[in-house]
């Protein structure tokens, strides 16, 4: 057996306080403050979860539902770039109408209890034309992203417009704006960052936190901006033949290095580490760009899987993060420009060609609101933070005695502990993309505490499977019971039937085991498995995870506690929210939102179902459908008898076969450029798609899902481009409700698919042979997702 030992040092001195120039509005009931190691809100440790969602890349009529999805996914703060070129493409005509209505978006965040973090630029990047700076500005005789007076004059006008839109939405007036980011990825202009903060404040923008991205060895203006970090599992901005970047590989190790020199490195000409790293004892480890997915560029088209994002996120918590910020959490679509297309491209001097419209980003919530497996992976972690984040935030990260020797060490188990000196959480990551990590048989952990006996767990060594990543509790107090340790991950707690129920998630391949402090236990009963007293502990083992695996404990102080061990798959269907007058858990493999007095499900199933704990007094009511009730272990399951779903065939007709693939062209830095429009028009295979009338009558939630091969694909209604994608092996979804219905009714949908030349220097992962280069629609289906509102019975 390989020893896995860690000694917890004596607790550190209390963190620095009052040393940073951040202050909340006077009189707010929950003031935000920053210590040297964590954030506080209302005087208590605070562990925010932020997710990026670009309002100007999504239909305004659907903002509210998507924000509710984000909230149900555990996001507590919504971050969004305020993209100058989206609002003032034409000089002097600043638009905040329709999908650009910044004020309405911020107000919707406030309505649903979500904080808002506007990232106001002026330069944002965001894979937008000019980084968000309008063409008319860049055409002037000025030096952008500096203190050039001509540039600052334009910025002052822009900031004033943004401030007008957000007036009265700051914390002083009960608004949601908890932080403001100025600029982005500016490494060597600390004076300019200070100037931008001053200009924003002079315009009337207010927030308790002012932030800056801090990767790439950034030079910050003293302590005026809170540095935020990031980390991605993959990157589109590296070379096509560069392999998996080491800077991405690093994020699947437990370290105390916060920086990532890889993010945006293709836009930084040199290293700027002259000032050294930001002092770790003065700022907490906060993030704003953990990769919720990854965009695809023409020359490099990475694929990101749910486990990649889940493992990276959990690893960062183990490393010491106190703010989980994801980019992107919700995908979107570039708006059509009035003068030009609005994507980053070689034509605008940037080193990457991006799709004209799609900014899906493989995000947890997709370009059309699709709920993806990544969403469920992250929600599992966010439930942990919602219940235990106040405990985790002050805990320090401690690394084990035996650690990986470098970025390419695949054999040493990767783990760490977050601890306050007496209790904590053990984190293990045995997953990384591209290069699977081996099983680790005969694994046990020994954690030595300074003023308490060491813990060795589990009772019998286990095999940590390849691909596993998890968090186990150490001396966790739950309503009078002390859980010494468990080989299952805490999910959340809920009050049900007069007891506190702690839900835990089993890890596939590892038998769940619970060790209870016998001094805190009066009695234990379990529906399966064994209960064994061992050296001052009560060991519960052999339980079969599932909705009926409820271990019931009568605590020594008279309180009642339930320990519910769900299997790994079921745990990823847990939602927690206020429903029908109480805090409840809802199990559902589909999308769920909590909205006032109703719970809404979005499902493809003919008979969608959900399970609830604690059950409401009477079965929920769904208008237009009968609801069937049945027991499901500790839960009560409700099935909506909606009737069979109508299958609708997709009629896709080949109108014109593809011609020979165009010769590859190369642009900025010698990277492959997206083919010119003339090639798309003349060489592409062309297909016609008939859209059934019954779908056009109710297009909400309807996707055309295409399996295809080739280089790039574009969809048109008439001559108007409505969707596009570079081939990366993923399916191509097109939202029917985004299309002009009357024109589709008359003309249908036209698809163009371009083949890829065999010699093109383009990275597409996992493809073998040459068949995938052929321009072809291989399969098509209509995916119909409907919404069901369950109200109190």
UniProtKB/TrEMBL annotation:
N-terminal signal peptide: none
Q: Which residues form the Glycoside hydrolase 35 catalytic domain?
A: 40-187, 289-380
> In terms of domain of life, where is this protein from?
Bacteria
In its UniProt record, which GO terms are filed under biological process? carbohydrate metabolic process
An MF annotation (GO) of this entry: hydrolase activity, hydrolyzing O-glycosyl compounds
Q: Where is this region: Disordered?
A: 1-28
PANTHER family, A to Z: BETA-GALACTOSIDASE RELATED
* Family classification: Belongs to the glycosyl hydrolase 35 family.
Q: What is this protein called?
A: Beta-galactosidase
Give the organism the record lists. Streptomyces viridochromogenes (strain DSM 40736 / JCM 4977 / BCRC 1201 / Tue 494)
The root-end lineage is: Bacteria, Bacillati, Actinomycetota, Actinomycetes, Kitasatosporales
């Amino acid at each position: 057996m390989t020893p896995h030992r860690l000694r917890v040092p004596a607790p550190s001195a209390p963190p620095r306080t009052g040393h940073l120039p951040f202050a909340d509005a006077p009189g707010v009931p929950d003031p935000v403050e920053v210590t040297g190691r964590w954030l506080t809100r209302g005087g208590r440790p605070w562990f925010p979860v932020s997710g990026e969602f670009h309002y100007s890349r999504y239909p305004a009529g659907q903002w509210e539902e998507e924000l509710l999805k984000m909230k149900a996914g555990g996001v507590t703060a919504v971050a969004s770039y305020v993209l100058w070129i989206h609002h003032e493409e034409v000089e002097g005509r600043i638009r905040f109408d329709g999908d650009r209505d910044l004020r309405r978006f911020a107000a919707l965040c406030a309505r649903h209890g979500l904080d808002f973090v506007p990232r106001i630029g002026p330069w944002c990047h965001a894979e937008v034309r000019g980084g968000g700076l309008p063409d008319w500005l860049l055409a002037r005789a000025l030096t952008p992203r500096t203190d050039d007076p001509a540039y600052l004059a334009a910025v002052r006008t822009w900031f004033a417009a943004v401030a007008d839109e957000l007036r009265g939405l700051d914390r002083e007036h009960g608004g949601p704006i908890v932080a403001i980011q100025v600029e982005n990825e500016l490494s060597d202009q600390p004076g300019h960052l200070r100037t931008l903060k001053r200009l924003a404040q002079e315009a009337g923008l207010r927030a308790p936190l002012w932030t800056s991205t801090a990767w790439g060895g950034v030079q910050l203006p003293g302590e005026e901006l809170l540095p935020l970090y990031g980390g991605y599992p993959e990157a589109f901005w590296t070379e096509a033949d560069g392999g998996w970047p080491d800077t991405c590989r690093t994020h699947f190790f437990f370290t105390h290095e916060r920086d990532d020199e890889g993010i945006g490195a293709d836009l930084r000409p040199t290293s700027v580490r002259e000032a050294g790293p930001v002092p770790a004892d003065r700022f907490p480890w906060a993030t704003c760009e953990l990769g919720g997915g990854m965009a695809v560029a023409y020359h490099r088209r990475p694929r990101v899987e749910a486990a990649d994002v889940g493992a990276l996120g959990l690893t960062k918590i183990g490393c010491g993060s106190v703010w989980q910020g994801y980019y992107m959490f919700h995908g979107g679509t570039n708006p059509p420009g009035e003068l030009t297309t609005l994507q980053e491209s070689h034509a605008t001097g940037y080193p990457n060609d991006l799709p004209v419209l799609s900014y899906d980003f493989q995000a947890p919530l997709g370009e059309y609101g699709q709920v993806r497996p990544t969403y469920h992976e992250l929600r599992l972690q966010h439930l942990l933070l919602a219940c235990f984040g106040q405990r985790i935030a002050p805990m320090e990260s401690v690394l084990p005695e035996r650690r990986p020797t470098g970025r390419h060490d695949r054999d040493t188990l990767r783990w760490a502990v977050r601890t306050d000196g007496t209790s904590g959480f053990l984190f293990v990551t045995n997953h990384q993309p591209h290069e699977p990590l081996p099983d680790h048989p005969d694994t046990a952990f020994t954690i030595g505490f300074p003023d308490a006996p060491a813990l060795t767990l589990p009772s019998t060594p286990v095999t940590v499977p390849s691909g596993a990543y998890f968090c186990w509790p150490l001396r966790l107090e739950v309503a009078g019971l002390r859980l010494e340790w468990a080989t299952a991950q805490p999910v959340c707690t809920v009050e049900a039937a007069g007891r506190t129920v702690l839900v835990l998630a089993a890890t596939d391949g590892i038998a769940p085991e619970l060790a209870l402090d016998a001094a805190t236990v009066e009695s234990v009963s379990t529906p399966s498995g064994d209960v064994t007293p061992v050296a001052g502990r009560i060991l519960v083992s052999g339980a079969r995870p599932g909705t009926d695996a409820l271990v019931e404990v009568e605590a020594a102080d008279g309180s009642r506690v339930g320990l519910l061990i769900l299997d790994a798959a079921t745990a990823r269907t847990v939602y927690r929210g206020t429903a029908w007058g109480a805090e409840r858990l809802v199990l559902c493999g589909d999308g769920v939102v909590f909205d006032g007095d109703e719970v809404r499900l979005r499902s493809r199933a003919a008979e969608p179902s959900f399970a609830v704990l604690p059950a409401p007094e009477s079965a929920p009511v769904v208008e237009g459908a009968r609801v069937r009730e049945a027991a499901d272990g500790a839960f009560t399951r409700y099935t909506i008898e909606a009737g069979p779903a109508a299958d609708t065939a997709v009629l896709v007709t080949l109108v014109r076969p593809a011609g020979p693939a165009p010769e590859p062209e190369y642009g900025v830095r010698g990277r492959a450029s997206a083919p010119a429009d003339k090639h798309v028009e003349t060489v592409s295979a062309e297909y016609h798609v008939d859209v059934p009338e019954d779908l056009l009558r109710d297009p909400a939630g309807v996707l055309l899902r295409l399996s295809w091969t080739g280089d790039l694909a574009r969809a048109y209604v008439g001559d108007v481009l409505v969707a596009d994608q570079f081939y990366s092996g993923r399916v191509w979804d097109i939202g029917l409700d985004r299309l002009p219905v009357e024109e589709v009714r008359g003309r249908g949908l036209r698809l163009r698919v371009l083949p890829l030349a065999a010699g093109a220097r383009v990275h597409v992962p996992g493809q073998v042979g040459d068949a995938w280069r052929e321009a072809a629609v291989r399969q098509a289906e209509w995916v119909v997702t409907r919404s069901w509102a369950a109200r109190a019975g």
